[in-house]
Amino acid sequence: MRNASRLPAETNGPLVRPWLARLHPALFGMPLGLLGLAGAWSRFGRTGVEEALAVANALLHVALALLALLLVLWLAKLARHGTVLMQEWRHPVQGALLALLPVATMMAVALVAVRWPAWQPALLPLAILVLAGQAVMAWHVVADLSTGRTPPEWITPALYLPTVPGGFVGAMALQALGQHGWAALLMGMGFGAWALLEMRILNRLFAGPLPLALRPTLGIEMAPASVGSLAVVTLWPSLPADAMMVMLGVASGPVLAVLTRWRYWSEVPFNAGFWSFSFPLAAFSGTTVEAVHRGSWPPVVAQIALGVASLVIVYLLVRTVALLLRGQLLPPS
User: How far is the C-alpha of 290 from the C-alpha of 302, rounded, in Å?
Assistant: First the structure.
């Protein structure tokens, strides 16, 4: 019986990896979305709604706990199944999705540095380390894409992650740590990467539907404009409301482009990849809250934006817990 488990897949049924080896990088979209929502509620609380600060605090603690758990599991995966992790690193899409790990960590740094300023001296070395790892991921993705090693059918919005949302969220983290100059530089790098990748990725998206397995990544298409707007608002607190509303107008374009293709991504059974919708919507709602606070829009606009983002993330959370309870959260192989 002991030797039977070592038979090749073709004589012993499909190869099923241990659950630890099947941890998918898309899982880091969960704490990232919750962290983005915590930031949006925190901004809403600073407009005078004290109850919102309690919601933001609860979301922050849950997100940090989930992020810490996933980081520990990923370290265990590296130790036990390093070859599997290297396969994911070399994969055109999963390699890009691995950038969710540093992006989520940098978002946590940005929120923790504001919530607990005493931690800032310890967070700065962590931020530098994470940014270095993120830079390696960005180099890997851009090198493959720019030299034609990424097959056209694997070009997806996930390729934005290491460079564009990574640059913007990294800028927010450095701003929270008091490094405004470096934050502005990183912001510019994020915009430059967006310009570099946008034409290639949009050309693929307008060429026809993505393969079914890649369609959950369509939510990331909303990230560059939405997260970029939030980063600009964070770095320049005195920015006038009119400029913020222009950015919201730009960010609404990708949101509508994703919504118009709802038939494409709704054909896919729910999985953790759909958390790609969470952080862009949370960032969009956070920018809306700031625009309402600084401008002349009625408060109900901020409430609606925050409510929609919260409902979507609650829906994602409920569906994810249901998958976990049924033992279907991780892909079978």
Answer: 8
Closest CA to 309 of 200, 226, 228, 185: 226
What SS3 class is residue 270? Answer: coil
Residue 289 to residue 298: CA distance in whole angstroms:
10
- What is the percentage of the chain residues whose pLDDT exceeds 90? 62
Q: Each residue of 69-125: pLDDT tens digit?
A: 999 999 999 999 999 989 988 888 888 999 999 999 999 999 999 999 999 999 999
In one letter, which amino acid is 17?
R
The whole-chain average pLDDT of the chain stands at 89
Nearest to 29 by CA among 65, 63, 55, 60: 63
Given 3-state DSSP classes, what are the helix, strand and coil percentages for the chain, each rounded to the nearest 5? 80, 0, 20
* Six token digits for residue 201: 């990725």
Please give the distance of CA 31 from its chain centroid, rounded to a whole number: 9
